[in-house]
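SAMPLE LOG
Freezer: B-3
Tube label: C17
Construct: single chain, 104 aa
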Amino acid sequence: MTEYHYDGGRLTHTTTTWEPRWLDEDLAWAKAWMHYQANKCPGCGWQLVESTAMHNGEPAHSFHVPDPLRCHVCDARKKAQEAHEKKGAVVRPEAQVWVVEQVD
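STRUCTURE (predicted):
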């Protein structure tokens, strides 16, 4: 909000008051998110407090890894990329943007 200050009809100065960009609650959420991200295992994404916990010299938790799922979108994209590479020289493939469209 801007206030205009006059002296005898002549504008002398203005004062602009801004709402804070980050409220205290916003800052608290942002700090919590940063803390959460900083404490994730870079390999699996689990929180380190859980994935590295020990009890009596043994891992505190056991984990089961089920068979992987197949993402059919990623599969179709990968097949298209491989076919494209077989056509000839692909220059800077990391710069290509692949769009996947559902057909049914």
